[in-house]
Design a protein that fits this description.
Blueprint: H1 3-24, H2 28-40, H3 52-69, H4 73-78, H5 80-106, H6 110-120, H7 125-132, H8 139-169, H9 174-205, H10 209-229, H11 233-251, H12 254-281, H13 283-289, H14 292-326, H15 328-331, H16 339-347, H17 353-360, H18 369-386, H19 391-397, H20 403-423, H21 431-450, H22 455-476, H23 482-499
Helix pairs in contact: 1-2, 2-12, 3-10, 3-11, 3-12, 3-17, 5-6, 5-8, 5-14, 6-8, 7-8, 8-9, 8-11, 9-10, 9-11, 10-11, 13-18, 14-16, 14-18, 17-18, 20-21, 22-23
Length: 510
């Protein structure tokens, strides 16, 4: 089969697996990665290899921007102590322990062992976002998990680049140290500059399909240019997204936001599906390069590293959790964390595409490259399957499910918005103002009715169904042209969407 035909078959397989994962309540990243591994082992199955640079720019950059756009900078300031501990301390400690294991059990040179540590150290932003997308956990816990995943890749990639340079050059040079020191601030500054430039050009494309396309193109370009400049591409994209989010919501039109969010949700989901499926399919390339006589020893070493990675994260998280619970200055402005929240964060350390892409980016002459690559793949698959599949049961066991709290918070927020709208009409007279007041009064009353029973919703949805039937009759009898029909149908759809229960408004897969 051609590449396009193979891709279609794999997408059909992915769609079927997504329905299985949704009905079984399993996170789709783990299922897709495991299925990709099984597909790769089937004789005659298509062999799709990932170019590391392309994989990071295509799969990581848009997903990272999507996650960072929804993570306000105020949250980063509020939770900076745990974010700093996890993104810097956790990654560095994990890398150092894995480096020791590499020297002790795999006879790797110290720089090469540190490269391995940097590869497997960072929990992945894509994996964390995908697994947590449909789990309802406490807001503070979710903020720490998502915030951590935005920054730890940058720390790991900087460490990876430095250790790899030492391994290739045979020592540490001052030019490399200066370059490494400027990579993080340079990435942040470049990301902010790109966001300012993007805001200046957005007004020419807002409200157009080309504007949505430009968002994707600019995201990948920002990542690629940052890499060419030698600055941190991860921090660049995070700074780019956060800067855009700080002003973009007020500047863009409602129509553009609705369309852009829908397009990004679908595109990022597709990229996640392909990334985790392709990730599993790399097992054939890895095993083909590994000699059978060394496979048992390599798998044993990979298992040791997997256990070490999980235990180190758990120890770092629990130590940070207890410090934050007892030392107000350490936790900053955040509320004291609970022991259960610490257990959840400690267990939520899935590795993903960043780990695999950096492993495949190693030079061909890297010491024991096959062993390092196999170990990285084992850590990715082990954490995705072991931790990803047990997160939902763990949340229920720890009683951290906050679905009801989220519904109550949503209702309170709606009431606050209604009050703000009604208060804006103070001092306004006339029939128009009275009509707007009646609209807000109806919304407020409906909000209280929905909490008790759904008769109001049923009546309103029935009325909209009658309108839609009348519209269809006018369309079939050619009383309306296509443009008028589309406009009225869209208005009915938006009104129906506003009346539907919260759980029926989102399109989900897992």
């Amino acid at each position: 089969m051609s590449f396009f035909e193979s891709l279609l078959v794999l997408l059909l397989l992915s769609i079927a697996l997504l329905q299985v994962s949704r009905r079984l309540g399993l996170p789709y990243p783990a299922m897709l990665a495991a299925s990709g591994m099984l597909v790769a082992l089937i004789p005659g199955a298509p062999q799709i290899t990932l170019d590391p640079a392309m994989a990071l720019a295509l799969f990581i950059a848009p997903t990272l921007l999507d996650a960072a756009y929804d993570f306000p900078a105020t949250l980063a300031r509020r939770f900076w102590p745990p974010l700093l501990v996890l993104a810097a301390g956790g990654v560095l400690l994990t890398a150092c322990l894995v480096a020791w294991l590499g020297v002790r059990y795999a006879a790797l040179p110290l720089p090469a062992a540190l490269v391995l540590g940097a590869i497997v150290a960072p929990p992945d932003a894509v994996a964390a976002t995908a697994v947590l997308s449909n789990l309802s956990v406490p807001a503070n816990t979710e903020a720490v998990l998502k915030g951590e995943s935005l920054f730890n890749d940058a720390v790991a990639l900087l460490l990876f680049g430095g250790a790899l340079a030492v391994q290739e050059q045979g020592g540490l040079h001052w030019i490399g140290v200066v370059h490494l020191g400027l990579a993080a601030p340079g990435g942040i500054a470049f990301g902010i500059a790109c966001a300012v430039l993007s805001r200046l050009t957005t007004r020419f494309t807002t409200g157009t399909l080309g504007g949505n396309l430009l968002q994707f193109v600019s995201t990948c370009l920002v990542w690629i240019v940052a890499e060419r400049l030698g600055v941190s591409a991860v921090l660049c994209v995070v700074a780019y997204a956060m800067t855009l989010a700080s002003t973009h919501t007020d500047a863009s039109s409602a129509r553009m936001r609705v369309h852009s969010y829908a397009v990004w949700a679908t595109a990022v989901f597709l990229l996640n599906v392909l990334a985790f499926l392709f990730m599993g399919m790399q097992v054939r390339t890895i095993l083909a390069r590994m000699q059978t006589t060394r496979l048992d020893q390599a798998l044993f070493f990979a298992a040791i590293v997997l256990v070490a990675v999980v235990l180190v994260r758990f120890a770092v998280v629990m130590a940070s959790n207890r410090l934050a619970a007892h030392i107000p200055a350490y936790r900053g402005h955040a509320e004291p964390p609970t022991m259960c929240a610490g257990i959840l964060v400690g267990w939520c350390g899935m590795r993903g595409l960043v780990t695999l892409a950096t492993a495949f980016a190693l030079p061909a002459d890297f010491p024991k490259r096959d062993l390092v690559t196999l170990t990285a793949f084992a850590v990715v698959m082990g954490t995705l399957v072991l931790q990803g599949l047990t997160l939902a049961p763990l949340i229920r066991l720890l009683r951290l499910d906050r679905s009801e709290d989220a519904a109550q918070a949503l209702s309170r927020a709606r009431e606050a918005l209604i009050k703000a709208g009604r208060d804006s009409l103070d001092g306004e007279d006339g029939r128009e103002a009275m009509l707007v007041r009646k609209t807000y009064a109806a919304r407020s009353e409906a909000e209280h009715l929905w909490a008790d029973q759904g008769r109001y919703r049923a009546l309103a949805l029935g009325a909209i169904a009658a309108e839609r039937a009348a519209l269809q009759r006018m369309h079939r009898s050619h009383e309306l042209d296509a443009a008028c029909y589309d406009t009225l149908l869209e208005e009915l759809d938006w009104r129906e969407l506003a009346l539907l229960p919260d759980e029926h408004r989102r399109i989900e897969e897992s």
